[in-house]
Design brief:
By secondary structure, this protein is α/β, with parallel strands linked by helices. The chain has helices spanning 12-21, 33-42, 51-55, 68-76, 99-111, 124-129, 141-151, 166-194, 199-206, 214-224, 234-251, 256-270, 281-286, and strands at residues 2-6, 25-29, 46-47, 60-63, 90-93, 115-118, 121-122, 133-139, 155-162. Strands 1, 2, 3, 4, 5, 6, 7, 8 and 9 form a 9-stranded mixed beta sheet that branches. The protein starts with a strand and ends with a helix.
Length: 287
């Protein structure tokens, strides 16, 4: 297939690489042109100077940018992708954005006989680099079936949740759960340290039981060592939680713990941890 990838951040860069290595004809666009040039030096493919140029003639256009405004700009803006796309082509938005935007873009695409999927990701930078992402998808089933084999090159799980917007809402559930787990782990490790316990032995014991989690397995050591200069940034998590809390205001969900942890992340930002990994919640307890 001829595919385009718009947005070569820490996630998009390796994902576009997997598309190239899978044999697709890839055209990339990135706001910072040097980043696109670097990608073209590493993988087979070409770069375009605008999203519309990248999208012209593509079977599928993948987007992975920062927030709602960025998505609108690269898809619907003056030089956005959609005006360059043909009937029957597909847009896949991998950005973590609002469900409202997903429904808006689905409607705009449908008017032009273009398919649209909202397909946010879980797995972080490591998942993207290892081709092991989890993808939650919202959209029409026929569009999903056509697109899934292409996304499969950088994913280990792809699930159609429901119609447009449902992929984004599933990602919100993901972030709600992570926020609570990380806060619980932070408090547990903080308690262990203050009690003079051997944290390694405690984790060895409890990680075999009901307390086990991905966060525990992958973050406990760096948390007790105050190492946070990696991973999914606090700024990004707060962006995601803001979207989630706004959606909750619309559907009436009570997210008391999520609101509390969001405030804790604001405290981490004040400590200088805007780009620290989300596991840095322990830093506000230790400080």
């Amino acid at each position: 297939m001829r595919v385009s990838f718009i947005g070569l951040g820490v996630m998009g860069y390796p994902m576009a690489g997997y598309l190239s290595k899978s044999g697709h004809d890839v055209v990339v666009y990135n706001r910072t042109t040097a980043r696109a040039g670097q990608w073209c030096g590493e993988f087979d493919g070409t770069s375009a100077s605008t999203p519309v140029e990248a999208a012209r003639g593509a079977d599928i256009v993948f987007v992975c940018v920062g927030n709602d405004d960025d998505v609108r700009e690269v898809i619907l803006g003056e030089h956005g992708a959609m005006p360059g796309m043909s009937a029957g082509s597909i847009i896949v938005d991998h950005t973590t954005a609002s469900a409202k935007l997903a429904r808006e873009l689905h409607g705009a695409a449908t008017e032009k006989s273009i398919g649209f999927l909202d397909a946010p990701l879980s797995g972080g930078q490591a998942g993207a680099e290892n081709g092991q992402l989890t993808i939650m998808v919202g959209g029409d089933e026929d569009v999903f079936e056509r697109t899934m084999p292409v996304m499969d090159c950088y994913a280990n799980a792809i699930t159609l949740i429901g119609p447009a917007g449902h992929g984004q809402m599933a990602k919100m559930v993901n972030q709600i759960c992570i926020a609570g787990i990380v806060q619980g782990l932070a408090e547990g490790l903080h308690f262990a340290k203050r009690s003079g316990l051997d944290a390694a032995k405690v984790i060895e014991a409890i990680s075999k039981g009901a307390a086990q989690s991905w966060q525990m397995e992958n973050r406990w050591q760096t948390m007790i060592n105050d190492e946070f200069d990696f991973g999914f940034a606090v700024d990004w998590m707060r962006k995601d939680l803001a979207i989630t809390l706004e959606e909750a205001q619309q559907n009436g969900a009570r997210l008391e713990m999520t609101e509390l942890v969001d405030r804790f992340y604001a405290e981490v930002q004040e400590l200088g941890g805007k780009r620290w990994d989300t596991s840095s919640l322990i830093a506000r307890l230790e400080n």
